[in-house]
């Protein structure tokens, strides 16, 4: 790829130049280098992809599941062979440190591995003699064409929360990556071409809202898996459902962590710094607000300020770098203006990451780790998802007050507790209103055999990505009741 390379779509087994009239630059957020141009594909290209994916579905669903997963074994092999190349592409277009990109691709591959168990996971149920001579059977069938709409922050992993399960259960797929980071999926699809899947089983259409709206409205697309901000998740869920589709829509977050006075402070500081500043805070599971209880206030505040100030910031391809830039110039401006808003609402800017300049990368969108102390719990900053390397501190006197604060938020993606008390940990696990809980650990994306839970405004739907949830989401049940004439005659 180079500055003038036009990114293509992959439809029905071939690369096609988009007829888009608008192209956006894909920009390396650390160097400001233009890496290529992504088409904002018109709705007609989604419609064409959906039509061809639907044609492919008719035959693909007939391939036995044990045969379909042979493609996944090969998929894993190809992703392993190209692991480093894909990881570097993620860092170049998304900005995260190379170790983080590798971690992302490892989880992507784990999802392929888990989906290899689909022949057993999609088995049905059978009950003999529900009445004399009558049997009842529940079978699982694929739903049809499925669409995956993904955000910018995990360009390699997030499509794999869905794609391996969707195709292994017999569906065909259209992926619509974030227009900010399209190159990773282009690379992945170039690699997956070697699978020789039947044309139309996997498709890639680049674009923005117009492409998404065409997905939401196309009658052949039966299921939508979305990951992104809450405002868009709500829109996808409402419009997709109004059009009769099944939708799972993962949204944004504002993740609280509680630190009790009996916590191991060295470990807590190290873990919470990683949680807040990993991927430059651009993770839906990033710690965003630290609530100290009682005496934890002073020890933790001092230690986390030190950890924030000493984080190594730079270009993610440098192995020594711990944190890269944020995704775009508007993101950097937004994060910096939210820091100011926090200060205007009464917070103390304990460590100020604004106006960062990284030697050799002066054009990058860098914000250094930032700590805001004593933020106003009633202010806007306490509620707004910052999606940058900013940790805000609050203080309360009891664990009950802390849990109440955790549960007062609109989101419910993740919450953590740091303590040495089993009783406190049990209370927290039981009462905290979040779909992913950490006890003395920051929360990374769950292993592929667990669902990626999310509650409240962090998730719209019933079945989550990954695991058995994915198998249920990508299949519809059919219940068959049957009796044969010989059994009928036996009754008389
Ligand atoms: P985003 O909502 O801006 O974009 C996500 C996708 O939606 C992209 O493919 C984009 O093209 C499309 N889109 C954007 N605006 C749209 C509109 N108006 N109509 C239709 N489609 C539209 O999100 P982002 O900035 O790429 O990603 C960051 C957000 O994603 C954060 O809020 C983060 O918390 C969230 N996120 C959530 C999870 C999770 O598992 N809950 C995981 C990763 C990211």
Give a summary of the structure in a few sentences:
With 492 residues, the protein is an alpha/beta fold. The chain has helices spanning 43-60, 65-81, 83-94, 98-115, 118-121, 163-168, 183-192, 209-217, 230-242, 265-277, 296-309, 329-344, 399-407, 422-431, 467-473, 485-490; strands spanning 9-11, 14-16, 23-27, 34-39, 125-131, 134-142, 145-149, 172-176, 202-204, 221-227, 246-250, 255-259, 287-293, 348-351, 370-373, 390-396, 411-412, 414-418, 436-439, 455-456, 459-460, 475-483. It has 2 domains: 3-251 and 458-479, 3-Layer(aba) Sandwich (Aldehyde Dehydrogenase, Chain A, domain 1), CATH 3.40.605; 255-439, Aldehyde Dehydrogenase, Chain A, domain 2 (3-Layer(aba) Sandwich), CATH 3.40.309.
The helix-and-strand class reads: alpha/beta
Rg, rounded, reads 24 Å
Please tell me the overall pLDDT: 97
| Number of helices, where a helix is a run of at least 4 consecutive DSSP H or I residues | 16
Number of domains: 2
Q: Indicate the CATH class of the largest domain.
A: Alpha Beta
CATH-level-4 superfamily name of the largest domain = Aldehyde Dehydrogenase, Chain A, domain 1
Number of strands: 22
Describe this structure in words.
The chain is built from 16 helices and 22 strands. With about 500 residues, the protein is of the alpha/beta class. It folds into 2 domains: about 5-250 and about 460-480, Aldehyde Dehydrogenase, Chain A, domain 1; about 255-440, Aldehyde Dehydrogenase, Chain A, domain 2 (3-Layer(aba) Sandwich), CATH 3.40.309. The strands form 6 sheets. It has a 7-stranded mixed β-sheet with strand order 14-15-16-13-12-18-19, with helices on both faces. Strands 9-8-7-10-11-21 form a 6-stranded mixed β-sheet, with helices on both faces. Strands 5-6-22 form a 3-stranded antiparallel β-sheet. About 55% of the residues are buried. The mean pLDDT is about 95. The site of nicotinamide-adenine-dinucleotide (NAD) has 28 residues, from helix 8 and helix 9. Nicotinamide-adenine-dinucleotide (NAD) binds near residues 153, 229, 252 and 452.
